Amino acid sequence: MPSPRPINPPYTLGVLTIASTLSYLDRQILGLLAEPLRQDLHLTDLQIGLLQGFTFAIVLATAGLPLGRLVDTGNRVWIAAVGIALWSIMTAACGFADSFGALLLCRTGVALGEAALTPAAYSLISDLFATRRRGLAISIYSTGAFIGAGLSLVLAATVLHELSSAGNIFVLLGMQHIWQMVFVFIGLPGIAVALWAASLKEPRKHSGTVPGPVPGIVEIRAYFSNNRVELASLYFCLAFAATQAYSYSAWIPTVLIRTFHMPPVAIGFSLGPLFIASSVSGLILGAVLGDSLVRRGIAAARRILMCGAALVASLFTAVVPFASTLNAALALISTATFFSTIIVANGPPALQDITPSRMRGISSAVGVLIVTLVGMGVGPTVVGFVSQNIIGDPNKIGVALSIVSTAALVVSSALALVAIFHYKLEPDNTAARAI
Q1: What pTM value is reported for the model?
Q2: What is the mean pLDDT of residues 389-401?
Q3: Rounded CA separation 245/236 (Å)
């Protein structure tokens, strides 16, 4: 009888990274389309913030907990594949929305599908890569988020440009606006990625050297209670860093449109590549530094890097509204993004290092819940609220974005400092297994 085909960790990581890229491409595509949507569907800044932030976050976070528990008890590969298929179909469905309510319903479906991927992916990656390489592996997966967000700008700009002369083809397809076709073009390829993900092999869940039983509710509650300061400081450090990241993804295109009068197509072709380059370089550099310092015996290295990066990034987000030229604004935005992604590079592996392997699904789900509610839920929505109800001038949306982003990063840095003094490596993660 032939032996089963061995699992290829880099291949699995590659497929999950592509899925992550697609996830954030579908999630962030609304950023570049915000102005056309506002005009065609007569939306307010607050409604746009709800579509990109709070409502999306509520669904993503609420669904994450039961899905995280399912990750610890079920087949992670199939959980991820079904989620990919769902969010892709619902992204395409956004193209047929003709009102705020219809678009909100479709975005709810996107969030429900995306809630499945990250807990499953973190659990799979942590079982396939040893602690000494886990930071780089998770950061490679995390590049998908930033590549997807950047590609959403480039691809949306490309489709907008190519379809601008398509004439009445939209009417024949039941669509009246070009942005509707963008959603369809971006959403449908995800079906193929879902089938690809479903073909992956499910690795065995590790717990030290032998498989352990699925943890019960009492054990899970005891773990979170005994490590509450350590976990909470990391969770909320990442959450406030995500506030800045989600706010930037949601509102930077609008800032450039209103402040520098850039057309959406030009923004996609200029901001997209800059965003990808600065975020991916920050992720890889942050991960390599974190892994290297951990191998040298600096146990709290990942947290130290998170603390410093958040503080430096806040300096750049604070001065973006004072940029007098477009090039200066783009340089400041890129630099802030570079440093903020160093936080992302080190946060998830720091959490995986302190989490028992049998609880990685639920631990990741709790992290996604907190990061989503605070980061995605608060960030874009509060920026819209501050712009509309406090500043009262749509043309000063950049000031609102700067206030929210800078405050969030300062809080993130302070929480990382707390985490530095509450570090304890989980014994499960000392084993050098896999690759």
Answers
A1: 0.72
A2: 84
A3: 14
CATH number of 254's domain: 1.20.1250.20
The answer to whether residue 3 is domain-embedded is: no
Q: How many residues does the chain have?
A: 435
Q: Alpha helix (H) ranges present in 262-300?
A: 264-295
Query: What is the count of structural domains for the chain?
Result: 1
Question: What's the pLDDT at 53?
Answer: 67
Residue 260 · residue 326 · CB < 8 Å: yes
Q: For Cα atoms 58, 157, 344, give the angle at the middle one, nearest 5 degrees.
A: 45
Q: Which of 290, 293, 342, 287 is nearest to 314 (CA)?
A: 342
Q: How would you write 337-395 as a 3-class SS string?
A: HHHHHHHHHHHHHHHHHCCCHHHHHHHHHHHHHHHHHHHHHHHHHHHHHHHHHHHCCHH
Q: 346 or 49, which is more confident?
A: 346
Kindly report the backbone phi and psi dihedral angles of residue 9, in degrees, each rounded to the nearest multiple of 5, phi listed first: -55, -45
Residues above pLDDT 70, as percent of the chain: 87
pLDDT band at residue 173, thresholds of 50, 70 and 90? low
pLDDT the model gives residue 164: 59
For residue 119, which amino acid is it? P
Range of the domain at 349: 9-430
Longest dimension (CA), the chain: 72
CA distance 349 to 368: 14
4 found inside a domain = no
Reported as a single tens digit per residue, the pLDDT across 2-24 is 344 567 888 999 999 999 998 88
- Tell me the two tokens of residue 93: 């469905």
The residue to which tokens 């579908």 are assigned? 26
Distance (Å) of CA 307 to CA 87, 136, 354: 34, 19, 18
Alpha carbon 81 to chain centroid distance? 18
Structure tokens at 319: 């001065």
Residue 432 reports pLDDT greater than 70? no
**Is residue 195 in some structural domain?**
yes
Above 80 in pLDDT, residue 29? no
Q: Is residue 362 part of a domain?
A: yes
**Of 258, 275, 283, 234, nearest in space to 401 by CA:** 258
How far apart, in whole angstroms, are the C-alpha atoms of residue 163 and residue 249? 24
Are 160 and 178 spatial neighbours (Cβ–Cβ below 8 Å)? Answer: yes
